[in-house]
Structures are given as structure tokens and as C-alpha cells.
Specification:
Largest sheet: 4 strands, antiparallel
Strand content: 35-45%
Structural class: mainly beta
């Protein structure tokens, strides 16, 4: 699965934020305050993505014993994640 980033004006899919087959469904996704990152939450943790490249930057929490992350948000300045 993964998150899908769409161009709203053209109605076209720009990229899929996922690591490959078998990735868990994304429960939530939010843009950073500057719009340069996307934070996704899923049953196995939270991930930080580069918006332009669509590349995974960092896994914030992940693993089979990690509880489901239903949502995650950036702090107002974008420096922290909750």
C-alpha cells in the first residue's frame, strides 16, 4: 500500500510513498509546516518522507512489536513529531 501524493489541479498521481509490496496500509499522512516532508503512520510505526523525491528519509518507529501508530503530527515549527 502506502500513501499516494496527487496533483490536485491535474488530478494525476505524482508518486506513491511506499517501500514495496507488503507494506502496511497508511492510517494517516500529514505535511510538515514547510511542506518539504510528509509524515505517515501505519500499523508498524511512523515514517518521514521527502516530498519532492518521494524517498524515505527516516523510520521514526517500526517493528513487529511496535504498537500501531494511528496518527502522527508535526510540532508547529516542524522540529518534533508526536
Amino acid at each position: 500500500d502506502g500513501a499516494r501524493l496527487w496533483n490536485k489541479r491535474a488530478g494525476k498521481l505524482q508518486r506513491i510513498l511506499a517501500g514495496g509490496p507488503g507494506w502496511p496500509a497508511v492510517k494517516s499522512a500529514v505535511f510538515s509546516p514547510r511542506g518539504d516532508e510528509i509524515l505517515t503512520a501505519s500499523r508498524d510505526g511512523a515514517r518521514l518522507w521527502n516530498t519532492r523525491a518521494g524517498k524515505l528519509e527516516r523510520i521514526l518507529a517500526s517493528g513487529p512489536n511496535w504498537p500501531t501508530v494511528n496518527s502522527a503530527v508535526f510540532s508547529p515549527d516542524g522540529g518534533q513529531v508526536l
